[in-house]
Amino acid sequence: MKSIVISGIFVAFCFQANAQNTILKDTINISRAEAETIFLKNNLKLLSEKLNIDQAEAQVVQAKLWPNPTLEVSEINLWSNAYSEQLPPISGNWGKTSQVGVSLEQMIQTAGKRKKMIAMEKVGMEMAHEYFKDFLRVLKVEFRSNLTDLQYVQQKQDIYKKQLSSMQKLLKAYENQSKQGNISRSEFIRLKASELEFLKEIGDLQKENNQLQKELKTLMNLPSSSHLKIINDKFVPELSKLNFINLADLTSSALENRPDVKVSILEEKYNERKYKYELAQHTPDVTFGINYDRGGNIMNDFVGIGFSMDLPFFNKNQGNIKSAKFDIEKSKYAKTEKYNEAQNEVIKAFEDVLIAKKMYENTNEEYEKDLDTLLESYFKNFAQRNTSMLEYLDFVEAYLQNKTIILDSKKELNEHFEELQFVIGKEL
Questions:
Q1: Which residue intervals of 228-317 are DSSP H helices?
Q2: What is the four-CA torsion angle of 394, 397, 401, 406, rounded to 10 degrees?
Q3: For the segment 154-203, what is each residue's pLDDT rounded down to a tens digit?
Q4: Are residues 405 and 363 in contact, defined by beta-carbon separation less than 8 angstroms?
Q5: 413, 236 in Cβ contact below 8 A?
Q6: 72 beta partners
Q7: Distance between CA atoms of residues 18 and 157, nearest Å
Q8: Digit-coded pLDDT (tens) for 237-261
Q9: Which CATH number is correct for 236-282+323-428, 1.20.1600.10, 1.10.3720.10, 3.40.50.300, 3.30.70.2570?
Q10: By the 8 A CB rule, do 185 and 176 touch?
Q11: Across the chain, which distance is largest between two alpha carbons, in Å?
Q12: Right CATH number for 1-67+114-232 from 3.30.310.80, 1.20.1600.10, 3.40.50.970, 3.30.1330.130?
């Protein structure tokens, strides 16, 4: 028995020390909307992912550029011998025995390769935009889920701290009465045991709080000394938003708005343009050139033109053309699968949110107020010795269970509502 009391003192000391450490931090009282604004502005992953769009736009710019011409200067002799022919000097008296060759070449892409490459990269740019939207969609639902969890934990902590405060008031009175011999020591120990249970639950909740603080501060790019306190607003979504929606509209919205669905469509489009580009590769490019030769030909100053091209006897790009054709087929299967996946996710999320809504409506605010009023009544009657300890503690346990159920119903409704918004690809 003595060891239980000592353990209780130790747990209470740890809890108080932890509370003091929390106070030393920079507490930020913030609403969900304000937190999300900071997240969207400061999240480092989002800032990094957004650079992929800039890279895709740069690839479009690159595809529009013409190939560079090639300049070649050759056949320069640095000395002469007895057999060197005399030529008109290049400058002044210099260059009578100097030879030089200069050529300039320009490759011309045939079969519209450049336009086809630009078309491919433009689709790639569209895909980069949709990839970013999908990344934002996933990260946002993770952030909102952490917000909901933190709000849930903080509200549950408040419930247990309130009960702990009431319990500690009773304990102080019972300890005095026990010392005076007015009540048995066993009653005091029973209350002390309940206090320990509250302290342990609050300690476990604080650990969850710490973990969520870490996740949210990382997502919001806040200083490590910050401590978030979520204002209790919009923990439960507006139920009116759910009264005017139907499954057909939600499914249609998912196919129109979800970035991952759009990406599957763009991938098919990209592969179709890639196939056209590979077909164009079958036609060889032509390189035109002009060259000048001084002293190395039948004329002292020779100027000539010419062209060169590959002869597609062996390599007609057959393998790449065939591979690109298979990519089109694969992307069609992937698109159909994504369509099916999106529709099934909408049905599941819609049914889940209706179940959560029904559960929440059964735990209305009036019932919660009745619980609080009844608890105060039990507390007063127990303090006045009109209610036995067993009855009081049984009600406190039932009270905490019901308050937890009410909190759980709010949390689940919030989570399923966010999941529904996630799978349809837009805010309701």
A1: 247-257, 259-280
A2: 90
A3: 999 999 999 898 888 888 887 777 777 777 788 788 888 888 998 999 99
A4: yes
A5: yes
A6: 103
A7: 14
A8: 877 777 777 888 899 989 999 999 9
A9: 1.20.1600.10
A10: no
A11: 134
A12: 1.20.1600.10
- Alpha carbon distance 12, 157 (integer Å): 15
Inform me whether the pLDDT recorded for 137 exceeds 50: yes
- pTM for the model stands at 0.81
d(CA 144, CA 239): 18
Q: Quick one: pLDDT at residue 134?
A: 93
Report CA dihedral (182, 183, 188, 194) to the nearest 10 degrees.
Answer: -130
Task: Identify the residue whose tokens are 């970013």.
Answer: 132
**Structural domain boundaries of the chain?**
1-67+114-232, 68-108+284-316, 236-282+323-428
Can you say how many angstroms the Cα of residue 336 is from the centroid of all Cα atoms in its chain?
25
SS3 289: strand
Name residue 365's amino acid.
Answer: E
Alpha-helix runs per DSSP H in 180-258: 185-220, 247-257
Per-residue tokens: 218: 């990382």
Dig out the tokens for 363 from the structure: 């735990």
Q: What is the pLDDT of residue 340?
A: 95
Identity (one letter) of the amino acid at 310?
D
Q: How many CB atoms lie within 10 A of CB 201?
A: 17
Predicted confidence at residue 283, as pLDDT, reads 92
